Amino acid sequence: MSLGSSSQVLRAHERIIGGHPVNIQDYKYQVAVEVTLVGPFCGGCIISPKYVLTAGYCGDAIAVHPDYTSNSDSSNNDIAVLTLIFTLTVGPTIGPIALPNINEEVSTGTSAVVSGWGALTEGGPSSDQLQAVTVYIVDRNKCNVTYGGIITDRMICAGVPEGGKGPCQGDSGGPLVAAGKLVGIVSWENVCGRPGYPSVLPILLQLLYVHSLQAKPAYEVRNTERFSVALNNK
């Protein structure tokens, strides 16, 4: 499985809700994933010079988690690994994000950062500048009650009680980072920072066979010609 683009210029679209502009040097793992014909614009993150992690929804035509169920209400295992046709050159604006250790826990209340170019408001305006916002890990049981019992142990919830901060349209597949490690991938973007509704993300603690991906990919391979990955600021 492979994908890539000869372009090193980021096609930046929209931005995080309630966020602030950031420098790509501080978020050099962040990339944009775009279907080249017709389809979603998503975020993603570099996990090695050859691999990009994004949401299963974003990579639905290429390489998705074998247990990803896109037709479910909760989109369990919403994760995809993309193999680049080129090897990235790590530098000041390009580099991988650290993955968590196996069985490493992220405690309720832990601060985390989500970044991307998603919508400023639901269906709202866009910005060419990468945005980031701080959110907090929400108790899974409380999150499960909020969402009517569809939150699984393979998901992590994050947000702020008052709302107004979080990912939105265009942020799917983007990273949730705590203490310098990737702990989740933006999955549900429909809440767009609504009060009382935290964002829901696939939890990497349950999906860490990503660590062994370079030895033998465990993902279903599909059409590889429809995607491009873009790097750096526009």
TrEMBL record:
Per UniProt, residues of the Peptidase S1 domain are 16-234
State the InterPro entries in the record: Peptidase_S1, Peptidase_S1_PA, Peptidase_S1_PA_chymotrypsin, Peptidase_S1A, Trypsin_dom, TRYPSIN_SER
Q: Which GO terms describe its molecular function?
A: serine-type endopeptidase activity
Query: Which CDD domains does this one have?
Result: Tryp_SPc
Organism encoding this protein: Ignelater luminosus (Cucubano)
* Protein name (database record): Peptidase S1 domain-containing protein
| Entry keyword Protease | yes
> So which domain of life are we looking at?
Eukaryota
Q: Which SUPFAM superfamilies match?
A: Trypsin-like serine proteases
